[in-house]
Amino acid sequence: MYKSDGKTSNYQDSKFATCRERTYPTSATIVTTTKHGRQEIPVVDGSHFEIIGQFDAATGFIFGDGYDCFIHTSCSVPLVAGDQIGPFVVVAGNECNLEIA
């Protein structure tokens, strides 16, 4: 789930995730690239969406306000349901299967 009131992850420290606590745009088009290609994802507060992987060790996001950040998406750092990583709340998945909504 997208939340513009960004928080710092309980599991991914700053060397693994630069998506941190800050205010993000309440609506934006987020651009990300995975091995499946470039995805443009329109979001507003409370939006649910899925990023189609396969993922590299880090997945980067570019926001319409010129801000960019990344989160760790390999098996070595957990993605825990309920954790918020910047503006992204992980709603499902585990350290090897990512679904952000």
Structure report:
It is a single chain. The protein has 101 residues and is mainly beta. It has one domain. 0% of the residues lie in helices and 47% in strands. The protein has no helices and 7 strands. The strands form 2 sheets. It has a 4-stranded antiparallel beta sheet, with no helix packed on it. Strands 1-6-7 form a 3-stranded antiparallel beta sheet, with no helix packed on it. Strand 2 (27-34) and strand 3 (37-44) form a beta hairpin. It is globular, with a radius of gyration of 12 Å. It starts with a strand and ends with a strand. The model has no long low-confidence stretch (mean pLDDT 86).
Task: Determine the mean pLDDT.
Answer: 86
Strand content range:
over 45%
Largest sheet: 4 strands, antiparallel
Helix-strand topology string: EEEEEEE
Low-confidence stretches: none
The best one-word shape is globular
What is the helix tally? 0
User: What structural class results from the helix and strand content?
Assistant: mainly beta
Total E-strand runs: 7
Based on CA atoms alone, the radius of gyration comes out at 12 Å
> What separation lies between the terminal Cα atoms?
4 Å
Q: Order of strands across the biggest sheet? A: 3-2-4-5
Helix coverage percent? under 10%
Counting structural domains, the number is 1
